[in-house]
Amino acid sequence: MRALTWHGKHNVQMDTVPDPEIINPRDAIIRITATAICGSDLHLYDSYIPGMSNGDILGHEFMGEVVDVGRGNTSLKKGDRVVVPFVIACGQCFFCQKSLPAACDNSNPADKADASEIAFGQVMTGAFGYSHLTGGYAGGQAEYARVPYSDYGPIKIPDGVEDEKVLFLSDIFPTGWMAAENCQIERGDTVAVWGCGPVGLFAIKCAFLQGAGRVIAIDHHPNRLALARANGAEVLNYHEVRVREALQEMTAGLGPDSCIDAVGMESHGFSPDNIVDAVKTSTRMGTDRAHVLRETIMAVRKGGTVSVPGVYGGFADKVPVGAFMQKGLTLKTGQTHVQRYLPALLEMILDGRIDTTDLISHRLPLEQAPEAYRNFKENQNEWTKVVLHPE
Amino acid sequence: MTDRPISTDADVDSSAFRDSDLHEGRHAADSLRAILIRRPRSALYNYWRDLLNLPVFSETVKSVEVLDATHSRWVVEGPGGKDVALTSVVTEDLADRRIAWTSTQGSDVDHEGWIEFRDHPFGRGTEVRLFISYDPPGGVVGKAIAKVMQREPRLQARRELRRFKQLMETGEISTSRAPDAAPRGSRHL
């Protein structure tokens, strides 16, 4: 099959690789019909994430048709159309049973798990196409993918709904939803969102759906600000205004009730402390750039909540922990517990309560993925979200 | 431009992975690890006590031949990837609680281990603790071998328990190994 593979910094290519196979009884093989490039894929593209090997297949936002199912899966059958969560979770462990699938204890294979246990204290959960730290699973920017625990993760899509409408159930829609939920929004709250990329845009939509009275969105790309505005947000361009002063003024001195950091480490790299020298070299070490995290803590009102869907990897310098404590803040964060949200979010799409496609800027054949990566990185104003279709 | 494969793969052999709190045991290299498994104590004990099950989830125990009620012959992947054979005798067997074993004379390597099963105090399942230890073959320890010895049982115990937990909780063992489970492309064939 054809697949988008990683070959070093700023070097992704389309390769012909072996088709995936059923290995475990609960596996399924999906013929992929739509797949997307995520902002976090750019960290892989920039070669900032340790644990990558030549030839790894990328991609963690995908959907398609079940073409093969292991004998241990009785809930999926050939021909089913499914969206696959980017998080791989077993459904049986302590964390899955607590509805925390993004903390699953079993999906990271035993031979891959050491690195993240050393980096973070316990083992990271498995995910598709995101380095050996998350298990080294082949990703979904390809024609086929092997999906472990396929009786627990993938959600079936009814006929008559286009792929594009549901594709983002794989990652960014639940991520935006959880980001808003983590704000603990009360009716009429003002929510400030940093980053108007796809996650930020979904966070804006979801904040309104969860009862926010106002959403203030912060970015500098004109097109992304326009998308935010089209979704009901008031926008601030941080190249033109002093964000914190503007937020104080707009909220009559109170500060926003909650703040969402949908930016994360600013492509300065995953920086686990002293994992290996090779990692230091490849990441050109520094601490994570935590500028947005700092700003959200300083900007939010006293007693408010900071919600962090943005990805961080290592250590941050000069986080205002004094402000955090003295203002009595709550910080909620984490990789998205996708499986937990899927049924309710699918209902919302089918009921027409949310537009999940307005952020798509480009639709391309999978063969053009390498070009798409380059543009997605270099032309962020024009390229908001890329959906790829295998031929 | 070097011809080494491009990779940012974290190298597990790096000194950065060395556990600094090495446990000093009777043998040259040993380890203790604990894990929580959401299955009843008796189910876990019964599965492990049937030694023929060990090769199902263990990456080091390649085969087990049961000789009698307490003795069995194991082929184990030893340090450096070489197979070693040992005859194991079960020295303690407390039903649903603890199994201990040790290698007998005539084994390629001195090996002992024990596993304990305890109820989690608040009903989250079973706490499983595994201890394995061995002396290097021949008792003569080169510096390089000793270094490997220090790390291998710790890594082994950690991985054995993880695979055992995966099997007991999910019915399968997680894998992403290329080429079957994770097909990979390469331009440097």
Q: How many distinct beta strands of chain A?
A: 15
* Cα gyration radius of chain B (Å): 18 Å
Largest sheet of chain B: 7 strands, antiparallel
Structural class of chain B: alpha+beta
Count of domain modules of chain A: 2
3D shape of chain B: globular
Stretches of chain B where pLDDT is under 50 for at least 5 consecutive residues are 1-29
Keywords (chain A): Metal-binding, Oxidoreductase, Zinc
InterPro entries (chain A): ADH-like_C (IPR013149), ADH-like_N (IPR013154), GroES-like_sf (IPR011032), NAD(P)-bd_dom_sf (IPR036291)
Protein name (chain A): Zinc-dependent alcohol dehydrogenase
GO molecular function, one term (chain A): oxidoreductase activity
What this model shows, in words?
Chain A is an alpha/beta fold and 391 residues long. Chain A folds into two domains: 2-171 and 336-389, Alpha-Beta Complex (Quinone Oxidoreductase, Chain A, domain 1), CATH 3.90.180.10; 175-333, 3-Layer(aba) Sandwich (Rossmann fold). Helices cover 27% and strands 19% of the residues of chain A. Chain A has helices spanning 41-45, 94-97, 113-120, 163-167, 172-181, 198-209, 222-230, 243-250, 277-283, 291-299, 321-326, 338-350, 369-378, and strands at residues 2-6, 12-16, 28-37, 61-69, 81-84, 144-147, 155-156, 190-194, 214-219, 234-237, 258-261, 305-308, 330-333, 362-365, 386-389. In chain A, strands 3, 4, 5, 6, 7, 14 and 15 form a seven-stranded mixed β-sheet that branches. In chain A, a hairpin with a 5-residue loop joins strand 1 (2-6) and strand 2 (12-16). Chain A starts with a strand and ends with a strand. Mean pLDDT of chain A is 92; it is low at 267-282. A seven-stranded antiparallel β-sheet of chain B has the order 1-7-6-5-4-3-2, with helices on one face. Chain B has a single domain, classed as START domain (Alpha-D-Glucose-1,6-Bisphosphate, Chain A, domain 4, 2-Layer Sandwich). Chain B is 22% helix and 32% strand. The two termini of chain B are 17 Å apart. The radius of gyration of chain B is 18 Å and the shape is globular. Chain B is an alpha+beta fold and 189 residues long. Chains A and B meet through strand 2, helix 3 and helix 9 of A and helix 3 of B. Chain A: Its EC number is 1.1.1.-. Chain A: Residues 198-265 form the Alcohol dehydrogenase-like C-terminal domain.
